[in-house]
Specification:
Length: about 550
């Protein structure tokens, strides 16, 4: 029962922290970390023991799956050059540079362990940046940070696992590790795509047979990231990349027909899951802070001097991470500009000036993935031998997360001062074009629709009513007036009009959806617009209710 009470208390705190965050001008992660630390204060004394493997398995797969699902694929492809350099090149640059620095400043941390810490400090959190900037960041920069956060989660965590293996076994070969990395990465991607495709085929088969209960399909979607992770790990591939690939594949399969109710429920469930899991991760960090500080200073005679030196170590490591990121962003951005001009292509949509470079640098906020990764460090390196400086690793990771959040809270608003969020005219025009084309498709479908079923008796009054509804599609006032008439004939006529109108509307909405799918298949519309239009079409169809 104690475990059940603890879970309920944490979930309640996640909800309350959201309300408190509206009053206190601080990012939600900082509020949640503070709430966790307050709850762990000796007076209250709530302690939660974490199993590293369970923590990694429980939190990472669904969060990475959701990131892959919601990432706008077309924008990711357009910005693939900058995103890949940030998500892959910068991670490796950070692992080497920060790894050697951590080992130099803290010799008690072995070099492989320092590389593992640098790797787990590489993943960024675009959600925290969006909350801090309140959507004032230029759209291309936000897409770069989103794409980087999606891909460097996988790159950083896979590199982290390799470094952990090297730390535990004491053996490392660059050539062998590189080949293994490629095989593990490709295996993870293939496993995630294949499993997601199979689940999509299974769901399509179920829907074709009328088994389209939304709750059943949503449960399948909830289990998919865990299944992808476990299957890939069993096959010796990357479970992390498998979860990401499954999410990206599922965003295509989400366009299955007759999925209106499922999509609506799925969005709500996954929004709740992401909010709860992100909040729980930061609450757990706050709960662990007192124990982390106690463990870090337990071998010293005095508390404050030791804690002060450890805090200075965290500041130094964070400063090195910022410098490495700025140097990489500045150098690679200019290199990409030179290459694009050499190939005769236009410059990037974002001007590579000092402000943009600093926005990308400070926007590299560390968050939930870094914390979940460092919490997964094993307690023992071998039988009876503790993992070297595990508590110090968690302390440094927690400190870097806090510093990155605080720095972003202060620096990003200053960098965005005078920058007003201009409306995205291209996106708005694209949405208008989509609505126009889907509306035209609906009109053509209504023109071709036979309202009288074959073999049915064609009544003149029914034909006239059908023609009027088909031409105008909306007769709310007459429908409302006749619905208040108590006579049996008027009630029958009102029901007939209502059923016929809903059938027409349903036909038109489905024609719009098919046109939207066609535009998406031909890459004429981006994922953001597809998601926006599809959500409104689904809501409109859901409002019609069951149509016989």
């Amino acid at each position: 029962m104690q475990s059940a009470y603890t879970v309920l208390i944490l979930l309640m705190l996640v909800s309350v922290s959201k309300l408190v965050g509206r009053v206190i001008p601080l990012p939600l992660p900082l509020v949640q970390i503070g709430a966790g630390a307050l709850l762990a204060w000796p007076t209250l004394g709530l302690h939660v023991a974490l199993d590293p493997e369970l923590f990694l398995f429980l939190f990472l797969p669904p969060l990475l799956f959701a990131d892959g699902w919601r990432m706008p694929k077309r924008d990711l492809w357009r910005l693939r050059g900058p995103i890949l350099t940030l998500a892959v090149g910068l991670v490796l640059f950070t692992v080497v540079g920060a790894g050697y620095f951590i080992h130099w400043i803290l010799p008690s941390i072995p070099l492989p362990v320092a590389f593992a810490l640098a790797a787990v400090l590489s993943p960024t959190d675009a959600v925290a940046v969006s909350a801090i900037t309140q959507d004032r960041l230029p759209t291309p920069l936000m897409h770069m940070l989103q794409g980087e956060a999606l891909m460097n989660d996988a790159t950083g965590l896979v590199t982290f696992k390799f470094a952990l293996v090297a730390a535990i076994t004491g053996a490392f070969s660059l050539a062998e590790a590189s080949a293994t990395f490629v095989l593990v990465a490709l295996g993870g991607l293939a496993t995630g795509v294949a499993l997601s495709w199979l689940v999509g085929r299974l769901r399509a088969w179920m829907i074709a047979r009328g088994w389209d209960d939304p709750a059943t399909h949503v449960v399948f979607m909830l289990l998919l990231p865990f299944a992808a992770y476990v299957l890939a790990e069993r096959l010796g591939a990357s479970g992390i990349l498998s979860a990401v690939a499954a999410g990206m594949m599922q965003s295509w399969l989400d366009l299955l027909p007759r999925q209106t109710s499922t999509r609506l429920l799925n969005r709500s469930v996954w929004s709740l899951l992401e909010f709860s899991f992100n909040g729980l991760i930061f609450l757990l960090l706050g709960l662990q802070l007192p124990d982390i500080i106690k463990a870090v200073t337990s071998h010293e005679a005095t508390l404050m001097p030791t804690l002060l030196w450890r805090c200075l170590d965290v500041v130094a490591i964070f400063a090195v991470l910022v410098v490495l990121r700025f140097v990489w962003v500045q150098s690679i951005w200019r290199l990409i500009g030179v290459i694009r001009r050499w190939r005769g292509k236009a410059d990037l949509v974002v001007t590579p000036n000092a402000r943009s470079c600093w926005l990308l640098t400070i926007g590299g906020v560390r968050g939930a993935v870094t914390l979940a990764g460092v919490m997964s460090v094993p307690l023992l390196i071998s039988a009876g031998k503790a993992f070297p400086e595990r508590d110090l690793l968690i302390f440094i990771a927690a400190g870097v997360i806090l510093l990155s959040l605080v720095t972003a809270c202060i620096a990003l608003p200053l960098l965005l001062r005078g920058v007003s969020k201009s409306p995205d005219d291209a996106l708005r025009q694209e949405a208008k074009d989509v609505w126009r084309q889907t509306a035209e498709a609906a009109i053509h479908a209504l023109e071709a629709e036979e309202l009288i079923e074959p073999g049915a008796t064609q009544d003149a009054a029914q034909a006239a009513l059908a023609a009027e509804l088909k031409a105008r599609l909306m007769a709310e006032y007459r429908h409302q007036l006749e619905s208040f008439n108590d006579t049996a004939e008027a009630q029958a006529l009102a029901e007939q009009m209502d059923l016929l109108e809903r059938r027409l509307r349903l036909r038109a909405l489905r024609a719009q959806r098919l046109e939207l799918y066609k535009l998406h298949r031909h890459h004429q519309v981006g994922d953001d617009v597809v998601r926006q239009v599809l959500e409104e079409l689904d809501l409109s169809e859901a409002n019609l209710g069951a149509v016989k």
